[in-house]
Design a protein that fits this description.
alpha/beta, Rossmann fold, four-stranded antiparallel β-sheet, 10 helices, 9 strands, binds zinc ion
Length: 261
């Protein structure tokens, strides 16, 4: 390598951190949203759509856990022991995974849509302790009663080959052909009636204090999750967009204009 090209290369390196820092400061306006909801509430689907619409990365703890397990990382091996037994992964393991993801430049700059975290009051307190009031601009609960999600979860089938989710017709207890790839779509091992009922009860137990705490901070909004995915998405946008606009206004001026809810 000749000295001229090395000089240019070095020059560009010194420019980079400055450009990067400016971009980070400017982009801290990225929305920070917590999405809550029972299993079967359509939370994952709505998060994917919101992520596209709001231009904010979708961070799913389910995906983080699967990625850590697939990568064979020590934390993944630890998590796997719980996942394989159908148990919830402990707070500290989930916190480590989420903290690592949130510390990535993309999250600091572009904001985030947290799906599946915080699941407990302790996790929420840890998140706000680390990130301060800006840990979340808003937390939205997609509210679907347990009685409505139960049949959805019982009907759920997952493709062995491509992982696509599909719903079995009512009363159908067997596997199906995957509509996406023709593979076999079956009930997951941890989707027995008993396991589903246990997870729904656990959600109620854990989310009640979490929702109360978020509400007291003025951070919680609730959206009716019954209806078609399009209807729910429209309701989510109608609720979230004014809130997020207020948040941006607050960042700029230091005061909220109008009601916070
Ligand atoms: Zn498939």
């Amino acid at each position: 390598m000749c000295s001229v090209s090395r000089g240019r290369w070095r020059g560009r390196v010194t420019e980079h951190p400055i450009t990067g820092a400016a971009a980070l400061r400017e982009s801290t306006t990225g929305a920070r949203v917590i999405v809550l909801g029972r299993q079967g509430s359509g939370k994952g689907t709505q998060c994917a759509r919101l992520s596209t619409r709001l231009g904010v990365p979708h961070i799913s703890t389910g995906d983080l856990l699967r990625a850590a397990i697939a990568a064979g990382a020590p934390i993944g091996a630890h998590a796997r022991a719980y996942v394989e037994r159908g148990l919830l992964v402990p707070d500290e393991v989930v916190l480590d995974l989420v903290a690592a993801r949130l510390a990535a430049p993309a999250s600091r700059s572009a904001g985030y849509l947290l799906d599946g975290f915080p699941r407990t009051l302790a996790q929420a307190q840890a998140l706000f302790e680390v990130l301060g009031d800006r840990a979340a601009d808003v937390a939205v609960e997609i509210d679907v009663p347990a009685a409505a999600v139960l049949p959805r979860l019982i009907a759920r089938r997952v493709c062995d080959d491509c992982g696509a989710l599909t719903a079995a017709p009512e009363g159908w207890t067997h596997h199906l052909a995957c509509p996406a790839c023709g593979g076999i779509a079956r009930r997951r091992d941890d989707d027995t009636d008993e396991a589903i009922a246990r997870r729904l009860a656990l959600y109620d137990e854990q989310s009640t204090p979490l929702l109360v705490w978020l509400d007291r901070r003025g951070a919680l909004v609730t959206v009716d999750g019954l209806g078609s995915p399009d209807e729910v998405f429209d309701r989510l946008l109608a609720t979230l967009e004014p809130r997020l606009a207020q948040g941006r206004d607050y960042q700029r001026t230091g005061t909220f204009r109008g009601p916070r809810t």
